[in-house]
C-alpha cells in the first residue's frame, strides 16, 4: 500500500521507463521529462529549466530531486508568495526528494538493512540515506500493523 506521493513517483518513473536503481541518471531523467539542467550558485526552477549548484554527483542528484518537485508539482513565483506558502512548498520539495531519489517501489525489490545499502544503490549522501531508511522502516512498520 503506497501513499499518494509514492504512487505518483512510481507512475512517473514507469512512464519514462525507469524501473531499477541502475537506470537512474539525472541527465536522462531531465531529458525524458523535458527539463534542461544548468548550473549557478543558487538552485531554483524556472519554466523548464532546473538550476542547481555545481557539486558532487550525489549533491547534484539530491538538489535535482528537490527542484524537480517544484517543476512537476508547484506553480507560482515564490518571490511573490506569502512566506508560509513558500515554506510549505520547500517542505514538500524536501519530502518529495527523499521519495524521488530513493523510490519506495525500488526499495521494496532490494534487501536494505542499513543506510550504506541505500547509498550503494542510489548514490545519495549518508544523512539523506539515513533519513530515507527511517522513513522506509516506519512505512514497513505501518504496513505490517495494518495486516
TrEMBL record:
<feature type="domain" description="IrrE N-terminal-like">
    <location>
        <begin position="47"/>
        <end position="134"/>
    </location>
</feature>
<dbReference type="InterPro" id="IPR010359">
    <property type="entry name" value="IrrE_HExxH"/>
</dbReference>
<protein>
    <submittedName>
        <fullName>Phage-like element PBSX protein XkdA</fullName>
    </submittedName>
</protein>
<dbReference type="Pfam" id="PF06114">
    <property type="entry name" value="Peptidase_M78"/>
</dbReference>
